[in-house]
Design a protein that fits this description.
Chain lengths: ~160, ~425
């Protein structure tokens, strides 16, 4: 009995920790994108940037939520350009769209323009903004809503190696 | 036994996919919680004690007037010595309220030849992105202000934001803004149009009374600042419109009536929020001067152009416009341009960012925008910085720039 409880508890701890990490909103700094690229070394991924104040971003998150339901291994990184003070609301929005299991980040700099510039000097702050990184991490930038069909097509072409 | 069921329940919650776990909780209370969280976060966003975005104007005597937000109060003060010393700030808002002062949003101020001081602003409401357009004025030289009025006469808790203000100097006051009221009248989602348009209110008696709201245009972009200037034929607004399904270029319209005239053709098609508008000013001859940002197919960056004087209220108004003139260094993200004019002199200003530091830039024309001085860097900022605000009269050309580390700066642009 004791052993069963112990095993269950250990399992719970392990899984709980894994979920906590996925649901954790991480502070995005100038060093974050290189770290993310390292994490996805040799693999494709989608970097999507959004904000609570952006009208169109809601549609983008809805679409990604839909995609995430059918693509369990979607290589998605979600970055909010809001502030860490808004973490609660950011988490609530991600949860609403079923996106909390992904790598989620929030801009953490008193001068957010620095972070924008570090990601891409050609990005002028329009939202939503996304970058599609192929396995060699050549990236395709996109401003405005991503089409679901376009994204599914990109995923087919850049299917992560098993 | 009960504790084990509980433990298994917890385990199940941890193992279930998050969407399923969410369905576990009561759906109604979940929505309520989310709504409450949205409101709390929105209020936190507005609670910044001393936001950087300010409004500025010159009066007939060349004194500098400032409108700024401190601890949820809108304060007005003035300086007779170019910003070295200011009068004691006077509150315009008798009660604390959420005055939007953040990038594309800032309080607006204008001072009439008779010394009347006019202030407009956007008051955020609890529901995210909802707001009222507010106005107050002083007839005693800024010592006291009238009780703030709400100008959007529908009073709905929806988006009325991005106000702009202009006065004619002889008792007329105009305020224009972006308004989402047509959204409620239409089946949302079925219309190919955006849910926002340009609305305005005009006063003929110095701001005591405003006429009914005027709908100037439907189908505008949702979150770029608007601009307004008073021409001989009435107030002319400048805003990012949506042409066709989704081309986000700029338009002008006379608030007294007349067509929506397209004044930029950059072909910026984006299903998104630029958060980056432009400015307008009229010179002594009635020419319009506009400055704007685009990321379109045809051109990218910030641009200036002159629109020769004509009757902008005529349905068949033909526009004589100069070619777009690129401003600033695109590699340094030149952005947020603004323009001011008096007589034949026109002042352009914008902000640049090199990845670490912001800088304030300006250039001056003494022939109504035909030729320009070389662009000049006026100052740098080590930390966060507001947009640059141009002010011009017969004696001076100034750029007001509020910066987090260095404070509020009044920078002179010498010819």
């Amino acid at each position: 009995m004791r052993r069963i409880v112990h095993a269950v508890f250990t399992l719970w701890l392990a899984f709980g920790a894994a979920f906590a990490l996925a649901g954790e909103l991480q502070p995005f700094t100038g060093a974050s994108l290189p770290a993310i690229q390292k994490q996805f070394a040799g693999r494709p991924f989608i970097l999507t940037l959004w904000s609570l104040t952006c009208h169109h971003c809601v549609k983008e998150l809805q679409m990604l939520g839909r995609l995430a339901r059918s693509e369990r291994s979607l290589p998605l990184v979600i970055v909010s350009t809001d502030t860490p003070a808004e973490a609660r609301e950011i988490r609530a929005a991600l949860k609403r769209f079923g996106l909390q299991r992904f790598d989620t980040w929030v801009f953490d700099d008193t001068v957010p323009e620095r972070l924008r510039y570090a990601i891409d000097p050609a990005w002028r702050g329009e939202l939503p903004r996304s970058y599609l990184f192929d396995p060699a991490h050549r990236r395709e930038a996109h401003s405005g809503l991503l089409g679901e069909a376009q994204l599914r097509d990109w995923l087919r072409r850049n299917r992560p190696a098993k | 036994m009960r504790w084990r069921t509980g433990l298994i329940g917890v385990l199940a919650m941890a193992l279930l996919p998050p969407a399923a776990a969410q369905q576990h909780a009561g759906h109604a209370s979940q929505t309520e919680d989310a709504e409450a969280r949205r409101q709390r976060a929105w209020n936190e966003r507005l609670a910044i004690a001393s936001p950087l975005s300010v409004g500025a104007a010159l009066d007939a005597a060349g004194r500098l007037w400032l409108a700024r937000v401190e601890n949820r109060r809108l304060l007005v003060s003035h300086s007779a010595d170019g910003g070295r010393r200011y009068s004691t700030p006077v509150p315009v808002t008798p009660q604390p309220e959420a005055v939007m002062a953040d990038a594309e949003n800032r309080p607006k101020i204008a001072v009439g030849a008779d010394g009347s001081v006019h202030v407009s602003w956007t008051q955020s409401l609890d529901k995210p992105m909802s707001a009222h357009i507010r106005y107050a004025r002083s007839t005693d030289g800024g010592k006291t202000f009238s009780l703030p009025a709400i100008l959007n006469d529908d009073r709905q808790v929806i988006s009325h934001r991005f106000d702009s203000l202009a006065i004619d100097g002889r008792g007329r006051v105009a305020v224009a803004w972006l308004d989402a009221r047509s959204r409620t009248a239409r089946t949302v989602g079925k219309s190919p149009q955006t849910d926002v348009g340009l609305y305005a209110a005009v006063s003929e008696d110095g701001g005591t009374n405003f006429g009914r709201n005027r709908r100037i245009a439907d189908h505008s972009c949702q979150c770029c600042r608007t601009g307004l200037t008073w021409t001989a034929a009435g107030p002319v607004a400048f805003w990012r419109h949506v042409f066709g399904r989704n081309i986000r270029d700029f338009a002008i319209a006379n608030l007294n009536g007349g067509p929506v005239l397209r004044v930029t053709d950059d072909a910026w098609e984006i299903d998104g929020c630029p958060h980056h508008g432009g400015g307008i000013a009229v010179d002594g001859h009635g020419n319009l001067h506009i400055a704007w940002f685009t990321n379109g197919e045809k051109r990218k960056g910030i641009f200036y152009r002159r629109i020769a004087q004509t009757d902008f209220s005529k349905a068949d108004a033909r526009l004589d416009m100069s070619a777009p003139l690129a401003l600033g260094d695109p590699a340094r993200q030149a952005g947020h341009p603004a323009v001011a004019a008096v007589g034949e002199r026109v002042l352009l200003t914008w902000r640049e960012f090199d990845g670490q530091r912001f800088s304030a830039w300006a250039m001056l024309s003494r022939d109504a925008g035909t030729s320009w001085s070389a662009p000049r860097k006026l100052a740098e900022a080590a930390q966060q910085a507001d947009y640059t605000l141009p002010l011009i009269d017969a004696r001076q050309a100034l750029v007001v720039w509020n910066t987090a580390a260095e404070g509020l700066r009044v920078l002179e642009v010498r010819p």
